[in-house]
Target: Protein pangolin, isoforms A/H/I/S isoform X7
Amino acid sequence: MPHTHTRHGSSGDDLCSTDEVKIFKDEGDREDDKISSENLLVEEKSSLIDLTESEEKSQKVARPDHSPVFNKLDTHTTSFNMGYLVSPYSYANGAANGLPVTMANKIGLPPFFCHNADPLATPPPAHCGIPPYQLDPKAIGLTRPALYPFAAGQYAYPMLGSEMSQVASWHTPSVYSASSFRTPYPSSLPINTTLPSDFPFRFSPSLLPSVHATSHHVLNSHSAIVASSSKQDCGSHQDSTTNNRYPRNLDTKNTSSNQSNDSSKDISNDKKKPHIKKPLNAFMLYMKEMRAKVVAECTLKESAAINQILGRRWHALGREEQAKYYELARRERQLHMQMYPDWSSRTNASRGKKRKRKQDTNEGGNNMKKCRARFGLDQQNQWCKPCRRKKKCIRYMEAMNGNGGILEDGSGMDDHGSDDDDDDEDDDDVKLNGSCGSVDADETANKIDDDAESLDHGSMSSFAQSPSTTTTSLASPLNMINFINPTTPNPAALLINCSATEQQQQQRSTSVSTTSTSVSASSGSGGTTPSTSSTVSPVTTGMPGINSSIPGANCIPGASGTSSSQTMLLGNRFSHLGMGLSPVFTTTSTAGTGLTTNKLEPFFGNNISLNNLNNSQIPIPVMPNIIRNPIGANPRDINNPLSINQLTNHHQPSSLLKSSFSQHLHQQQQLLNVTHMTTTSAVNNKNKVVVASSNRNDATTTAMMSISSHHAEKTSAAECHSNHEKNTDHHQQSNASGKTPSSAGATETGAISVS
DNA sequence: TCGCCTTTGAAGCGT
DNA sequence: ACGCTTCAAAGGCGA
Model:
């Protein structure tokens, strides 16, 4: 969307813009029917947001601007009627006063902000912190109950053991729990509900109410300011000058301006001038918040891997949850803009010439800047993921060299598979004429494009991008989708429980998680082969017993015998499968009987409106002709005509797909004793990778499945903006064990992955 | 020591 | 208007 935000503009008008609009716009984009009830809900929310902002504006107008913060506090106090606008964080410690954990973290006051919060139990003496701004007593005094007070039990899965609960916690919207914000910030404070929860938590204490501010904080520059020379972690440095992300602009701007009299001085000042960092966007805020949790749960330390996980989780978040972060980000930008009216991202951009030069050199040397330029629109399958996303394509050459044509994400490897299907992602520019879907579908997909991309991107695409990616993908929450399938423990879950060694193995063995539907493959030792994922495996839902039948899951990887690169490739392709509507074949088996019934459940992914979820529950005895070609399916498949169109259109799977699927199917059949999956071609669209993990016992798997289902449904509900959103959890739980991945798929996975 | 990786989003610049 | 690029956080890893 166009950027409405003008940095130098005065404040208010653009404040409302981007985030909310974007969010809801996305919603609208995703859903074909904008008039759907879900949208109505969204619109309502949106209107609320607008209203909130309008209130803010009006208040600003009414009140002289003593300080942005002041206004913000005040306005937010009144404006935070919206649950998701307000940070609904319920602060576990329940301290009456305190800063939001995140804020505390930013503030970085060790003495006061102890993780234990004991010190904070009693607000520091007023003298400890003299906020530059007068705080509105109202803001301080008001207490706001958590808007999303998820009871502990809400995400507590009774059926789950502690272990599973932990897993479940993955999906627990951190936003709604105090812990979520607290985790990343060990030094978190008790969060003061009295403060506007939305208050920009990254800002320097000086901006905060006096409650916890200390004198040195007051003097501190904003946390955003860091030594230009080094990449300092604002949180890590307790130094008075670097504690806070955003130092007071007075410190930076004024000092710099005073110092700069001549050009030489300016130069030197530029170097000395504290580096004002960009305000964090919603995702960054989310990452900061959730990183620690992910690290703790997954025992992963590598940020790249964690970020992948977080990216998927981000997509898995409900819109409302995301909206919260968007709101926070918006406020940060707002505050940042107020603090540094003259600041521009360009300022920082000028600093980072190195990287650009480097890229330039690469690009210049290889002239590989864009895949589009290189391959043209006709060969989108050759494009790397970033290019598909219409972003930079830096590593293309490397990937190509390494893989011999395999794109970095591997998703692009249509060579192996499909022709066209794969990517339509970019269909913005070109509509694929392939078998993939109708033009209409493409158009529809295009509408959804951004959203879908992001979803896919977060959810699936990353799998094959790089080894590391693959590795992380295992751990990614996205894989949680796999839980839907009792047989496939979520890699993430595996990682959670796995020892480091196990994790490494897991990482090595890339499991492809396709969409929610199920993909999976993972062998503890062997890498999972894409082929495995490629094959369609019936989704087994709610059948814990299936697990036992699939001990051989491990064999899957080996069976295909595909190269690692291929594996990656396939994995990506499959990752896409989940996107968009796709029939989900649910295999219901009676424990011990070995009988299985295949049920086609349309997976709605983002396009829930297209289908009635209730209908999806209806078992379909015969394998539908509806086929999606999984191969080359990009995670962003939502855009992919395959995702939606294929559901409605019958496609002839490519021979390659057929073969791969047949092979995979065959394997799956053997493993699962599923007799009904005979028509490979029919299945092409939806692959479900059944992940079998030797690591988990059936009970665990079952539990995981329940969780995933639960989460998925919840997510889907969120995306659908269904009014039932709140109820889904319960419903899900009841259903989770049951069977219908469809809803689950529709959700998080769905959106992200789906089944 | 520095840059990369990896994610999403925001913003600026260029076409 | 669109596309491309950079930067924001984070910490391990490699050069």
